[in-house]
């Protein structure tokens, strides 16, 4: 049996969505499509895209919607995403939701579930300052972190209204151990009939 799951994971910076996204995608045998990872890989390799976006990421601003959406379309058109995917970091505002929805509709597809990892702002902030010390990400400065959290609250939270109206949002308590949180997500997805790969 092959699993099909088209998922989106949403949560504030520091919510642990990157870690949980990888765990969930592995158990479904689907690729993670993380726009942040794609941008960072391009910056590291010094590609033209990387050069175009490096200053934007360092400030904690959003890369232009058209460019981001084009990159995601390309990635989702690869064969390994045909049986499903887990999006992390995209769509991040309502304009991107419209892009994604029209792309999926063209293919006769739709998202199956939106996992919302709920974490209070103070918890996000303390996890992020820890990550700044451990990983040294150049956008983990206090200014860029605060800016990204503001953008999240202003632009990303509204996309949940769109998906909430479709009845596909699973709100998951993001405070707990890594395993506990993975288990909560897996249960919510199973309740939607999304089965793991055999
Ligand atoms: P975080 O969630 O901690 O901000 P991400 O890895 O998701 O980290 O994103 C890092 C940066 O990459 C963002 O601050 C932004 O500059 C850029 N980025 C990622 N996803 C998008 C997107 N969907 N639209 C525009 N910019 C994006």
Structure characterization notes:
The chain is α/β, with parallel strands linked by helices and 198 residues long. It has one domain (5-34, 80-191): P-loop containing nucleotide triphosphate hydrolases (Rossmann fold), CATH 3.40.50. Helix content is 56%, strand content 13%. It contains nine helices and five strands. Strands 2-3-1-4-5 form a five-stranded parallel beta sheet, sandwiched between helices. Helix 1 (17-28) packs across helix 9 (178-191), helix 2 packs across helix 3 and helix 6 (121-135) crosses helix 7 (142-156). The termini are close together. 31% of the residues are buried.
Name of the CATH homologous superfamily: P-loop containing nucleotide triphosphate hydrolases
**Tell me, what's the shape?**
globular
Residue-averaged pLDDT? 92
Q: Major sheet, described briefly?
A: 5 strands, parallel
Give the SSE order as H and E letters.
Answer: EHEHHHEHEHHHEH
Q: Provide the helix percentage.
A: 55-70%
CATH class placement:
Alpha Beta
Number of strands: 5
Distinct compounds present? adenosine-5'-diphosphate
- Give the structural class: alpha/beta
Q: In percent terms, what proportion of residues is strand?
A: 5-15%
Stated plainly, the CATH topology is called Rossmann fold
Quick summary:
By secondary structure, the protein is α/β, with parallel strands linked by helices.
């Amino acid at each position: 049996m092959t699993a099909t799951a088209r998922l989106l994971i949403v949560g504030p910076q520091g919510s642990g969505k990157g870690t949980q996204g990888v765990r969930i995608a592995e158990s479904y045998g689907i690729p993670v499509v993380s726009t942040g990872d794609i941008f960072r890989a391009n910056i590291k390799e010094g590609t033209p895209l990387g050069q175009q976006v490096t200053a934007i990421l360092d400030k904690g601003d959003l890369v232009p919607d058209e460019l981001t959406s084009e990159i995601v379309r390309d990635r989702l058109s690869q064969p390994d995403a045909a049986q499903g995917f887990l999006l992390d970091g995209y769509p991040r505002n309502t304009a991107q939701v419209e892009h994604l929805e029209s792309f999926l509709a063209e293919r006769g597809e739709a998202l199956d579930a939106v996992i919302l990892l709920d974490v209070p702002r103070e918890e996000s902030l303390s996890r992020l300052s820890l990550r700044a010390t451990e990983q040294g990400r150049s956008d983990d400065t206090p200014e860029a972190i605060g800016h990204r959290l503001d953008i999240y609250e202003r632009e990303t939270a509204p996309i949940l209204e769109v998906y909430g109206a479709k009845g596909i949002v699973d709100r998951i308590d993001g405070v707990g151990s890594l395993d506990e949180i993975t288990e909560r997500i897996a249960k919510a997805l199973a309740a939607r009939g999304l089965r793991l790969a055999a």
